[in-house]
Design goal:
Layout lengths: L1 H34 L17 H7 L2 H32 L6 H13 L2 H12 L5 H7 L15 H27 L2 H9 L4 H12 L1 H15 L4 H6 L11 H11 L3 H26 L7
């Protein structure tokens, strides 16, 4: 009887969270999947069932493959660099030195800034002629540069902004994990003659792997949900050189009002995120625990 009562109380406690998850996550996802099987209503012309026609259109859409490739480059460029930078900063500010609190605040400050504010700050940096970057380069005799207007540099320029914004956020998790590692482990290793690199590779890094898994999941999510920076800095241009998948979904659904095709793109994005999540949990989760 007590087990049954505990079971009821357990479900009662998680029921509000489950209701919110289904209401704002699962049900909209199913509605998006259903909407991708219909056409977009136009004026007095209602939507009608088209089956997989939207997915066939997606396969032959060169813009989709362009932005998907951009997103892959963006993810491969920002995720490892931001994580490595975050770990380096955490290792630095975890050591006692004068001004450590100021250094921690400086590293974390970009994280608390609104995304629109960050984009406008870097828009000033990148502005040709009188932007901060051109002003500094001009001291060395360099000419004007147009990082955001050049197809070869627009996406890397946005990646720099994202790394600057996210590294401080990931640093907090690494710093908390470093402070949770017992100092006796490093002391015992030093007694055995281990150097700093051996201690980091054999003790610190393995104990940080659960945090690394958590940070990597957040980094992957961030890599596929960027809209604000693109909206302010480049608008997806030039010629979709800096457009990412979620921004393409925004343009399709709300600028061109093709909601059915936007739903199709959203389903693809959800499927891609699910595959990445499954890969991270089932293939990497077994390797993140120290043995």
């Amino acid at each position: 009887m007590k087990i049954k009562r505990d079971w009821i109380w357990g479900w009662a406690l998680i029921a509000p969270a489950l209701a919110l998850i289904f209401l704002f996550t699962h049900i909209p996802a199913l509605m998006t999947l259903w909407g991708s099987l219909f056409s977009t209503p136009r004026g007095r012309k209602p939507s009608h069932f088209v089956g997989l026609a939207n997915y066939e259109r997606l396969i032959h859409d060169p813009t989709f493959w362009k932005v998907l490739g951009n997103n892959a480059i963006y993810a491969l460029g920002t995720i490892p660099i931001s994580m490595a930078l975050a770990l380096s900063m955490a290792l630095l500010v975890n050591r006692p030195f004068k001004g450590r609190a100021l250094a921690r605040m400086a590293y974390f400050t970009p994280t608390v800034l609104p995304l629109i504010a960050v984009a406008n700050i870097w828009l000033f940096f990148y502005t040709p002629g009188f932007g901060l970057i051109d002003q500094v380069l001009g001291l060395f005799g360099a000419g004007q540069s147009n990082f955001l207007g050049n197809a070869g540099t627009a996406l890397p320029a946005i990646m720099v902004v994202a790394i600057w914004k996210e590294a401080g956020f990931f640093m907090i998790f690494y710093l908390a994990a470093l402070q949770a590692i017992p100092p006796q482990l490093a002391e015992a290793a030093k007694i055995e003659g281990a150097g700093p690199w051996t201690i980091f590779r054999r003790i610190t890094l393995p104990l940080l792997m659960p945090t690394t898994l958590f940070v990597s999941i957040n980094a992957v999510i961030n890599a596929f949900r960027l809209v604000d920076h693109i909206f302010i800095l480049t608008g997806g241009g030039p010629d979709n050189a800096s457009s990412l998948l979620l921004y393409y979904i925004y343009e399709t659904s709300f600028r061109f009002w093709d909601t059915a095709y936007g739903a199709t793109l959203s389903v693809v994005l959800l499927a891609l995120m699910c595959l990445l999540a499954i890969g991270q949990f089932f293939f990497f989760d077994r390797k993140v625990h120290y043995k």
